[in-house]
Design a protein that fits this description.
seven-stranded parallel sheet; alpha/beta; about 400 residues; eight-stranded mixed sheet; globular; 11 helices
Length: about 400
């Protein structure tokens, strides 16, 4: 009997099997918007382990264990919410520092496509170690932080007025010791007619080679906003609550409906304008005319805490949707929540879908219909489009799947 050599057939079967399973997840047919890499088209994206393995026009579904049909949907890098408050705890009367008004990240991030949050100053250098063990180390969400210039953090009331507890040297030292987690310095809620806290925060930023985020206002009389923009802050420093109108701070849109000239000058100079919606820091009366006149936000963020999430803010998707309906393009909105915040916090590893990077990916539906959006004064703006997160991957793992895109059908 003639012997049949089965080795070539075996090799073909083995190689075919390997080819068929070369990727863990394939996201197929989605409109990829990746501003950092100038991608804005329908493409396929493949993931192997915790890394992005390929971004190509066509990838065979036979090569993947799980195929996600993203046809008609938007695929973006995992979103970065650059202004949140996550130092949750049980200490009474401590506002956002180890207390009840802050929220644990994982319950509010993945369902909005957010894979990275940046806490805007909840801890200071005195309690950062507790924050790290209680929040950063315990969360699946990537948690970064602006370190409060006040050593006790954002603990509310007179503690945030304590200039003697604003220590640039200690703040910079703790920031350098935790450079994987601390990306900036925060000043907030100071009420005195005094530039000292601003100057101390900037000094800490200089010592730590990191940007400063400032929540400005509260003094009577008002400290001049043009001096803050053009003299006190450095290019790359961040002005948050950009579209607010609150007591003690000059609004960027004047009483005659015009954006003040020095505000445009500040943005050209490199001052970063962050939305920081919050529970009291975003009104259409400021945002709509500002955007119509060309003052668009550099970063779109939530200022997430219990006082904002059940009000007009709701989620990062909801805030993004407001800006879509105020005239920003979907590309601008995605950039303001991915590549741009990553750039401002100096994290080149985040905010893009480059091959070899950690696979943080969000898939969104852009729904059309009749929607309403609320600002922090309870005023409603109608809109006809709304962004909704369908699926979120964090480090290659499916962490949120609204409609089971990554699941097999149940056959009965």
């Amino acid at each position: 009997m003639k012997k049949i050599n089965l080795l070539p057939l075996l090799v073909m079967l083995i190689s075919g099997s390997i080819l068929a399973q070369s990727y863990d997840i394939l996201i197929k047919g989605g409109h990829i918007i990746d501003p950092a890499n100038n991608i804005d088209q329908v493409m396929d994206l493949a993931i192997m382990g915790d890394k992005i393995a390929a971004v190509e026009k066509k990838i065979s579904p036979k090569q993947a264990k799980i195929v996600v049909n993203a046809s008609g949907m938007i695929v973006s890098p995992g979103l970065i919410d650059m202004h949140t408050h996550n130092f949750f705890g049980t200490v009474p009367n401590r506002y956002l520092a180890n207390s009840f008004s802050a929220v644990p990240p994982d319950g509010f991030t993945f369902r909005s496509g957010v894979t990275t949050v940046v806490d805007a100053g909840s801890p200071g250098w005195r309690n950062f170690e507790l924050y790290k063990s209680q929040v950063i180390d315990a969360s699946k969400t990537r948690v970064l932080c602006f370190l409060n210039i006040v050593g006790a953090g954002m603990s509310g009331g007179p503690r945030e007025q304590h200039i003697a507890d604003m220590n640039p040297q200690m703040t910079a030292m703790v920031a350098k010791q935790n450079k994987d987690h601390v990306v900036g310095v925060k000043l907030a809620h100071f009420h005195g007619f005094d530039w000292t806290p601003t100057e101390l925060a900037v000094q800490a930023g200089e010592l730590g080679s990191i940007p400063v985020m400032i929540d400005f206002g509260g003094s009577n009389p008002e400290l001049p906003l043009d001096k803050l923009f053009l003299e006190k802050l450095r290019p790359g420093d961040i002005f948050t609550h950009a579209y607010a109108h609150v007591n003690g701070r000059t609004p960027i849109v004047s009483e005659n409906g015009k954006v003040r000239d020095y505000v445009f000058e500040a943005q050209k100079r490199g001052i970063v304008f962050d939305v920081g919606h919050g529970g009291g820091s975003f009104i259409f009366e400021q945002a709509v005319p500002a955007i119509q006149q060309g003052l668009k936000p550099d970063v779109i963020s939530t200022d997430l805490h219990t006082g904002s999430m059940n009000g007009g803010m709701k989620t990062l998707n909801n805030v993004m949707s407001k800006f879509l309906n105020m005239g920003l393009s979907i590309q601008e909105v995605i950039a303001a929540t991915t590549s741009k915040p990553a750039h401002y916090i100096k994290r080149k590893d985040l905010g893009h879908l480059s091959v070899g990077t950690e696979a943080d990916v969000a898939i969104h539906s852009l729904r059309k219909g009749d929607f309403g959006f609320i600002d922090t004064r309870g005023k409603r703006m109608k809109g006809n489009q709304k962004l909704e997160c369908e699926l979120t991957l964090r480090a290659g793992k499916v962490v949120y799947d609204l409609n089971g895109l990554a699941s097999d059908d149940w056959n009965h």
